[in-house]
Amino acid sequence: MKILMLLHGFAPEGRGGTESYVLRLAHELRALKHEVEIACGSFEARPKPEVVTGTWEGLRVHRIHRTGLFLDDWDKSYAPEIDGPLDQILRSFRPDLAHIHHWIRLSRHLAEALHDRGVPAVATLHDFWSTCPIAFRIRKGESFCTLPPGAASCHDCAKHAANADDAENAEALELFREDFKNELGLVRRIFVPSNAHKAETLRHRPEVAGRMRVLPFAPLGALRPRPEARRPSADGRLRVRHWGHLYRVKGVDLLLDAAASLPDRLRARLDLKLIGPIPFPQDRDGLFERAAACGAVLTDAPFTPADLEAEPADVAVFPSRASESWSFVLDEAFQLGLPAIVPARGALGERVGRAGATFVPENAASLAEVLRA
What is the DSSP string of 95-107? Predict the structure, then answer.
C-alpha cells in the first residue's frame, strides 16, 4: 500500500513529539513493505506556494511552503493555496491512503481536499486543534477549558483574527468550528492514543464516536539509566526532575511555586532541577526568579537521551495544565525506572497508575502536598 503522511512539520525543521512519532511510524510501515512518503508544512514562507522535495532518513519528504507569516495562527488555518502543491504531490506519489496527523501550517480542509480527489483518509488526533483554535485548550494561558468551540467561547481567548472587526472575528471562529466538524466527518477512522483523549474529544465531537479508535503510542526510544544515577543521594535529598520545553502549558511555574511553598526544613531536602529549553523569551526572567525562590536549577538548554540516562533522579514531575493525549516524557520516566507525579487529568492521570502519584490539576498547593509526603 502507498501511504501519504501529512503533518505540520518534519525533521530537520521540526523535531517535536508528533514529528518523531510519524518518523517512527513511517519506518515501521516501510518494514512491513508499504511505501510511505511525507507531506508537511514549513515555517519558511515563499512568495508563492511551492513544494520542495527532499529526503530524510531514507524517506521522501514533500515540504509545502505557504505565503505569509504566522502560519500557526488559527485565522491562517484555511489555506486553499495548498491545493496546487497537494495536487503535485498526489500526481507524483498516487497514494492509496492518506494519514493526517496535523493540519497546522497546511490547511484545515485537508480531508476535504483528499476526499474531492478520491484519496481515502484517516486521522490521528495528537492534540485538541480540531476543537480549539489554540490547540491545547488552555484558556488565556492559565486553565484548562471545557467550553464548546465557537465564537461564544473563543472570542475572548484565542488571538483576534488579523484585520477583522468583532463580527468578522466571530464569523471566522464559527467557520473554524464548522470546518473541523466537516474534516472529522470525512475521514474514515479517527485514532487517539488514550481513553482520556477520546473522552475529551467526544465531549465536543460526539458524532464521530463510531469511527474513533484508541490506539496507544509506543515509546519513541529506549532509555537505559546508568546504575549510579539511580543510587540514593549521598546527602539524603529528594532528587526531583522535570524535562521538556519549559513553559506555562507544561506547568513548570506550578512546580516551582509548589517547591517554594514547602517549609524551609523540607525545601532544604529538595534537589529540584528542570531540564530543557525555555521556548518563549518573555517567560525566561519570571521562571528564573521562581527558581531562585526555591533553590531550583533551570538549564534552559536542549538535552539528549544520554543526558537523561546519566541524570541522578528519584522522581519525575510533569505538572501539565493541558489534558495530555499521551506523553512521551512519561514513557521516558518509566524507562528510567522513575515514579512520576502528574495531574489527575488526561493521559497523564490515566497512565500513571501505581507507578506514581497524582495531584489536583493546576493546583500548586496540591502538588506541594504530594512532594511533602
Answer: -SEEEE---TTS-
Q: Which residue has the cell 465531537?
A: 205
At residue 166, what are phi and psi to the nearest 5 degrees? -60, -40
Q: Which amino acid is at 146?
A: T
Query: Is the Cα torsion angle 333, 342, 254, 323 positive or negative in sign?
Result: positive
Strand pairing report for 356-359 and 340-343? parallel
In the block, residue with C-alpha cell 488571538: 159
Non-local (6+) Cβ contacts of 182 within 8 A are 111, 112
> Is residue 227 classed exposed, middle or buried when 0-12, 13-18 and 19+ CB atoms within 10 A define those classes?
exposed
From residue 180, how far is each of 30, 200, 208, 347, 352 by CA, in Å?
Answer: 30, 16, 12, 23, 31
Q: Encode pLDDT of 254-304 as tens digits.
A: 999 999 999 999 999 999 999 999 999 999 999 999 999 999 999 999 999
Residue-wise pLDDT tens digits, 164-191: 999 999 999 999 999 999 999 999 999 9
CA distance 253 to 241: 14
pTM above 0.70, yes or no: yes
For the chain, the 3-state helix, strand and coil shares in percent, each to the nearest 5, are 40, 20, 45
